[in-house]
Design goal:
alpha+beta; four-stranded mixed β-sheet; 8 strands; elongated
């Protein structure tokens, strides 16, 4: 297994992700309980299957998401998915407003716009040390445009 060398930034996970997971699991426990008390295996099997699928997909995203700033590229890991983006391909990084949450488990996230072949692509990530991440990214490629939101008073 290849070890990525570089500066590692852990992903940020907001409290609402944990709340949604807890509410979902509580619903699955209730469904399983109904199946057990009514001697009906269908709700029990459905709750175990759905909960297992969600946990297999969501837990890696919570516990195995990070970004590594390597010498020539950024390596982004979002649960089961990983992507390499060369620094020359990055056009801009901005603090992402709105509720679109593709790939980031926090509303405090960064949008990375980059060239992918002949098209532009966009990826959302959330890092715990956003200021340090942006500073290190800018040091690796000063041509990257960093767009910060103005702080509200």
């Amino acid at each position: 297994m290849e070890q990525n060398k570089g500066l590692r930034f852990r992903a940020k996970v907001d409290w609402w992700v944990w709340l949604l997971l807890a509410v979902f699991l509580w619903g699955m426990v209730q469904t399983a309980y109904i199946g057990i008390t009514q001697y009906n295996p269908v709700p029990l099997l459905i709750s175990i299957g759905v909960a297992g699928l969600v946990l297999v997909l969501l837990l890696p995203a919570i516990f195995n998401s990070y970004s590594i700033l390597e010498d020539d590229a950024i390596y982004i890991r979002l649960g089961w998915v990983s992507i390499h983006i060369q620094y020359e391909a990055i056009l801009s990084v901005q603090e992402a407003p709105g509720c679109a949450n593709r790939g980031a488990l926090s509303f405090d996230r960064l949008g990375i716009e980059y060239r992918s072949g002949f098209t532009k692509d966009y990826l959302l990530i959330a890092v715990r040390d956003k200021d340090g991440f942006l500073k290190e990214l800018q040091a690796r490629n000063p041509a990257i445009e960093i767009k910060r939101r103005e702080k509200r008073a």
